[in-house]
Amino acid sequence: MKMFFHYNWMVREEWYQWCEGISEEELLKKRTGGVGSILQTLFHIADVEWSWIRLLKGEDDFQESFDEYRSLSKVRELDAQFRTEVEEFVANWDTSMEHKRLHFTEKDGTVVTDQWGEVMRHIIAHEIHHIGQLSVWARELGKEPVSANLVGRGLADS
Amino acid sequence: MKMFFHYNWMVREEWYQWCEGISEEELLKKRTGGVGSILQTLFHIADVEWSWIRLLKGEDDFQESFDEYRSLSKVRELDAQFRTEVEEFVANWDTSMEHKRLHFTEKDGTVVTDQWGEVMRHIIAHEIHHIGQLSVWARELGKEPVSANLVGRGLADS
C-alpha cells in the first residue's frame, strides 16, 4: 500500500514540474475526457486523496471548488497542505485496518459501506487512472509525458 | 496485491464488452498517446502483464507483434490463454516474495535489478495508466468509458 502512495506522490511531483513548462492557458484549457483540464485533474487528484482519508478518519472532507485554485502554484500549495495529513495516515497504515468498515451516505441518500482496504486502493487507482489521461493530453500538446513506470524509481529501497 | 489484480481483470473484461459496441475500424484507428489504438492498448496490457510474470518465473516472455492479433476476438483469446498462468501466479503470491530479486538485461546491455514486489505493482499501475488513456479516447468517440471506480465492486468480499 505504502509503495503505491510513494509512487503516486513522486509521479505527481514530476507532473507539477512538467507543468512548469506549459502556459497557464494550456493548463486550464478544457479537454476531452476526465475532469476537463490538466490543472483541474491535478487538483482533483489531491482533493479526492485527502477527502477519502478524511472520511476514514471520520472528519469533514474538502468541499471547495476548483474556481479558487486556478493556478499551478495554488494547486501545489493546496496539495502540500493536504499532504502532511495524508502522509501521516499512510505511514501509520497497517494490515489490521484492511477490513474496518466505512459507512457513508451518498447524495441520493443511499448508505454505502466500504472496507478501508478498498478505499485505500481506490485512492491509488484513482490517481493512476487520471495520470493516464494527462499522458494523452500531453501528447496532444506535442510534449512527452512523465514516465508512468513504477520500476526503476528505487521505491523498494525507500 | 491480489485485490488490484482482480480489479484490473474486472475492468479489462468490461472494456472488452465496451469494445463490442465499437466498430473494428475505430478499435484499430491510430490515436494520440499511449500505444496508439484502443485494441493495441488491450493487447499491450495483456502482453505486458504476462511477460513480467514469465520473467519472475524465469521463463521466456511474449515476443509476438500486434500484427497477428488485430481483432477483438483474437486479443480476448490471447488474454484468456495468458490469464491461467497469471492467475495461478497471483493466487500463490505471498509477502515473503516481496524482496526477491529479478535481474535482467535491457536491450542496451544494462543489467537491471528489481524486487518482485516492485514488479507486481508495476504490472498493476501499468494497466490502470493505460486504461486511463482509453477513457479519454472513449470520450473522443462520444462514448461513456467504463467506470474506473475500485470501490463498489465487492472486491473486498471476493
What is the tally of helical segments of chain A? 5
What sort of overall outline of chain A do the alpha carbons produce when their principal axes are compared?
globular
User: How would you state the average pLDDT of chain A, rounded?
Assistant: 96
Strand order of the largest sheet of chain A: 1-2
Oligomeric category: homodimer
Radius of gyration of chain A: 16 Å
CATH topology of chain A: Four Helix Bundle (Hemerythrin (Met), subunit A)
The first-to-last residue Cα distance of chain A is: 13 Å
Care to describe what's here?
The structure is a homodimer of 158-residue chains. Chain A has 158 residues and is mainly alpha-helical. Chain A has one domain: Up-down Bundle (Four Helix Bundle (Hemerythrin (Met), subunit A)), CATH 1.20.120.450. Chain A has five helices and two strands; from the N terminus they run H-H-H-H-E-E-H. Chain A has a two-stranded antiparallel sheet. In chain A, strand 1 and strand 2 form a beta hairpin. In chain A, helix 1 runs antiparallel to helix 4 and helix 3 packs parallel to helix 4. Chain A is globular. Chains A and B meet through helix 1, strand 2 and helix 5 of A and helix 1, strand 2 and helix 5 of B.
